[in-house]
Each structure stands twice: as C-alpha cells, then as structure tokens.
Amino acid sequence: MYREQLEAYFQDKQDMLVDAVCRLVSIDSVEGEPAPGAPFGPGPAAALEEGLKLAQEWGLITTNHEGYVGTADLCDKEDALHILGHLDVVAPGEGWTVTQPYQPKVVDGLIYGRGTDDDKGPVVASLLAMKAVKDLGVPLKSNCRLIMGTNEESGSGDIAWYFARHPFAPATFSPDSGYPVINTEKGGLKPTFTRSWPVQEALPRVKWLHGGFRINVLPGDAEAAVEGLTLHDVHPFARDITARTGITFTCTSQDGCTVIHAKGEGSHAAWPEGGNNAVTGLIALLCALPLAEGPCKEALNQLNTLLPHGDYHGRALGIAQSEPIAGDLTVAFTLLEVTETGLTGRFDSRVPLCATKENCENVARAAFEQSGFTFEGEQEEAHHTPADSPFVQTLLKRYEEYTGQKGECLSTGGGTYVHEIPGGVAFGCTMPGFDTHLHGADERVKIADLMLSAKLFAHIILDMCAE
C-alpha cells in the first residue's frame, strides 16, 4: 500500500543519510568515567546529544532520559512499536588502514569508521524511516519510539534503567544484527573462577601470566614468565605445541625469566571457532614444560583438563549440548591472570534453549569446585520469540517484499538489547553474506543496505502505527 510512496520519498535521501551517519561516527563514544548527566562517560553522552539533535532537526519529539537513553517519537499517542539502537561503540583497536576510527570516509559505496555498522548507521536509518513517515503525513493511531542507548557494548545498564521506569511496547526490534530476523539469542554463562596458594620457591615455576582483555573476546595474545628455564629449554616444547595447536610462540629473556608470548587469532567469544585461543595454547605449553611440582602447576594442569585447547563446546567440562533452534553450546576461555599467589580466570559460554541451571551451570560449577577453584556466576537464560508471532511474520513479509530474498528466522550466539524484552527480535541492518568487520579495524557499512533498511523500517512503522 505504501511501497510506491516510500520509494519516491527516498530517491533523493542518500546524501542526508550519509551526512548524518558521519556526524555520529565522528564522535568517540567509548564508555568512560561517569559524570552528572553522563552515566557512561562523556563520549556516549556527546553521541546521545548529537543523536537527539539530529532527531529534532528531522521533526521528531525528543527526550533525554538523564543521559541513560534518548527517545525520539513520531507522535504523542501510545507506543505500538519500539526500535532499540545504541550510540556507544567498542574501542577502536589497532590496524585501521582505510581511515582513522573517528574520521568517517566514504569509499566505493561504503562508509568506514567505528560505529558505522554497530550501531550508529542503523540508528540513522531508523531516524530517517521515522522522518519519512512523518513527512508523508499518514494519519497515525499509535506511536513509534526510537530508543537510543549509550551502554549496549558494556552491560546494557541503560536499557535496564529505562525499562525499570517505562513499559514495554507490544512490538520491539533492534537493528543491531543482521537480516532476515534474529528471533533467538543464546543464553550465557560467564563465571569467574579463582584459586590461591602460597609463594612457591621451587624452580622452574610460572611467575606470572596475562591473557585476554575482555570477557567477550577470544584472546589472540597471551604472555607468561617462567623462572628456572632457559630459552633453549623452552624451544623444543614450543615447537611441539605449535604443531599441535597452530599457536606460535616467541621467547625472550627478561629479568631472569624466560618470557613466552603466545600468538593465536582473536575472535568474538560467541563464535570461538573463528579464532585460535592464545590463552589455552599457552596453558598447553606450560603444562608440557618440566615445571616443579606445586599448586600453580596443579592448577594449570586442571585448567588444561577442564578447558583444553580447541574444545569450544564444553565437552571436557561436561556441558556440551545442542538443539535445532539455537544450535550448539559454545565455550571461550577468555581471561586469565596468574600471579605468584593465585589465579583469576573467566570463560564465556553461549548456551542454547535446552541449557538449564541443572545441566549447565551446576555441572560446570561442580567440575571447578571439585578441582579446588571457587566459581562465581549465574547462568542467563536464552531469549526466544516464536517465529509464527504476527510481528515476526510482518517483518519477514516486508523483508521478502523489499529484498526479493527468502525471509527466515535465525539464531545467534551474540546478544542485543532485546534479550530481556518479551517478543523482541533483532532485525537488520546487515544483509546476508557481507562482512562489516564488526568490532574490528576498518568497520564499514553499505550505504545501499542502510537506505534499504530505512525504507523497510518505514513500511513496518506504517504497518504497526498507521490508522
């Protein structure tokens, strides 16, 4: 009914969209120290102010909710649809080649920069969709509200704060993933385990180990210092472990120790098979070395048994399981710190719909505690919205209409704002098969995908809110 009007409306809107994306991407909105009116730091607060300013310029009704989120409304009627996007970003990291992270650049139909895909570009597509509905003057029976968050990348405390004070809408989607519809998000088990011991004098011994920097990133680098073994002593063991694991090792002499650097390949913890874990590779090497008997060696051997290199499904831990909707349980050993007096580690497990406290969390807890570790952390349930719900069917229908591709429901090991929202799904903005370099260097988004998303979102808003 509205397709022709929307196609005509968006014919000359590409420059407007690109300019708006670049405005937001130019702001470094990584989480920082909280301040009054900026609960997640000055960067996210600045991006929120710019997002609200853009919404005002485009004729929407805006509210800043104490710096946690900003909202943009089409009208003052009751909400029928929520769109959840976020304006905070992950740290830029190294290795950018096309442009600098906060200097957005258009090359061959792509916009490069941190946040172009995750999630500033999709926020702009959502705002432009709302502007289209407003400009077309279609009578509305209910409101569409865009909620712009500022803490999605590091806890989603913003959305928790907002929904503790405001009701859910009957329908919600988040353009923070891909197409067609992501109706299932795995649950999570992300515990912290510890063990302590007295300083060990006997040599050789591990003096320290540093591995990983973020719970949801499979570590591509890890490093340990071994006292009492020379470079010559370590090299043959390193060659053997490299042959078995693909992890490479570089050894240097520092402060009376042999420092071993393990190099693997990082990846998102939700898809650990895409990387090669430097922490588990380094543990495998340390367990192969002729270390003196003691509690540190014992603890490392136990970790090597519980979370061995290459076991990305929790088989050794006893929690491997799968079901047809969400797929396999995954495990990524992402953080480990070892000192002379103990260790602290974490793993990130994404669990399917069949995982329960009894068959997953309790089993993992028992395995660690029986090996002498403390184990702190509770399992988060998976999120699932039935594929046959009317809202999901509306999304799939419009997706097929606008793309010519088959619409289907998918699951993900990743998580979005909708994880705790009844009936919520992720929808857009990445088309199947395109690599956006998510959370990596040279993050990018297709301008054509954002324009298509804006049209698609506008039609869905009309489906849900028009008289």
UniProtKB/TrEMBL annotation:
Belongs to the peptidase M20A family. GO terms for biological process: L-arginine biosynthetic process; proteolysis. One of its GO terms (molecular function) is dipeptidase activity. Its EC number is 3.4.13.-. NCBIfam families: dipeptidaselike. The keyword Transcription does not apply. Keywords: Dipeptidase, Hydrolase, Metal-binding, Metalloprotease, Protease, Zinc. It is an enzyme of class 3 (hydrolase). It comes from the Bacteria. Pfam families: Peptidase_M20. InterPro entries: Bact_exopeptidase_dim_dom, M20A_pepV-rel, Peptidase_M20, Peptidase_M20A. This is Sapep family Mn(2+)-dependent dipeptidase. Its cofactor is Zn(2+).
